Amino acid sequence: MTNIILCGGSGTRLWPISRTLMPKQFVKLFDDKSLFQLTVERNSKVCDSQFIVSNIEQYFLALDQLDELNKSNSKYLLEAIGRNTAPAIALACMALEKDEIVLVTPSDHLIKNELEYEIVLSQAKKLAHENNLVTFGITPTFAETGFGYIEADGIDVKAFHEKPDFETATLYFEAGNYYWNSGMFCFKAGIFLDELKKYSPNVYEYSLAAFNNSNKKNIIRIQHEDMLAIPEDSIDYAVMEKSDKVKVLPSDIDWSDVGSFDSLFEELPKDENNNTLNEKHISIDSKNNLIYGKDKYIATIDIEDMIVVDTGDALLISKKGSSQKVKEVVKEIKKTTQLHNIHLIGHRPWGTYTVLEDSHGYKIKRIEVKPKKRLSLQSHKYRNEHWIVVSGVATVTVNEDTFLVNQNESTYIKAGDIHRLLNDTNEPLVIIEAQVGSYTGEDDIERIEDDYKRD
């Protein structure tokens, strides 16, 4: 059985912890492990390999975090642009044998009752062998309005229902045969493709054309134009709500989609006052609060039922119960800044950078380049750059010249110069970069050549 892990999504409801280039599934929230890593560990017990479906930025995050787990038996499919779950799953299934059973899971869910989970998966695998499309219905623990529901008669699906209002959700909860739609599935790759072709032929045909036109050397890379041509649709709309092969397995597995700060609060360990544990939290008569921050001390006095999240470049304060409105904050953020997109620490396939200072006309970064890695060959239109080597040896290319810059030495790159930074040693390279110019945004990069095939 192959675990298809869907890594799309930016987790905007967990901003400012979650950003586009470091979404919640890769943030290490639980015992220094990410939801993605927990997903891999959990499903590795029942699956032979992982098939990661992501974009190019998430691919490198996944690669690094799989390396931390010593997992190497993975396949990758990179989407140039997301088109929802039906095309993502279809493209992955097209790369597998028709009789291969796949377990499709999001990368950002938490499941704590793994014993019951393995029992349910065993039942799902048996139903999948019988050519069924299996979905997992989470046994509800309260009247939730944030999830879709599956109405069931035993394991037969009667209907799929959209996210309800509270009154309707209460009726669903009390009825006993309605389940939260988990977004997890199990089936044979070929059976799913047959049903997709039958009920959503446009999604199938355009996905097949995109797959056939893709680069399949080491990882499957779908071309941007081909991906854009595929109709955007979810697996529920495209197949599950139409097929007569669908079965639902009631699953009491202590599941959470960790989709908001309220749900995150429920999953984190607490102190004696029911505040989330935080070494830098000073609490004076405060209780029932989510306090998140790693750099600054956070002091609270006489507050209850609050959410306080500090990430260095952003501070979120909310009442518990209102954290779904974080999406509205992100909409406002997008109008004026890039805070929705990236943290002060940016993760790149070659290493990381940390923004130390960002003001009008200049920006200062700490850049760490992994051994034997290099940045893209690039130029900037609006900024000049000064590089100072803190540790290691930098191999620098500026236009036609390539030279070494040693510890405590520096070099200068003028706006418009074609340049590249390489760490050709077996030790990390650390430099301080001072950018000076009329614009220092991350999008002032023209990539001429890139090892990682980024746009």
TrEMBL record:
Gene Ontology biological process: GDP-mannose biosynthetic process; polysaccharide biosynthetic process
Domain of life assignment: Bacteria
Domain Mannose-6-phosphate isomerase type II C-terminal: 338-450
Enzyme Commission numbers on file: 2.7.7.13
Record-linked InterPro entries: GMPP_N, Man1P_GuaTrfase/Man6P_Isoase, Man6P_isomerase-2_C, ManC/GMP-like_b-helix, Mannose-6P_isomerase_type2, NTP_transferase_dom, Nucleotide-diphossugar_trans, RmlC-like_jellyroll
Keywords: GTP-binding, Nucleotide-binding, Nucleotidyltransferase, Transferase
Residues covered by the Nucleotidyl transferase domain: 3-272
Domain MannoseP isomerase/GMP-like beta-helix: 280-332
Reactions that this protein is recorded to catalyse: alpha-D-mannose 1-phosphate + GTP + H(+) = GDP-alpha-D-mannose + diphosphate
An example Gene Ontology molecular-function term: GTP binding
PANTHER family, per the entry: MANNOSE-1-PHOSPHATE GUANYLYLTRANSFERASE (PTHR46390)
Similarity remark: Belongs to the mannose-6-phosphate isomerase type 2 family.
Protein name, as recorded: mannose-1-phosphate guanylyltransferase
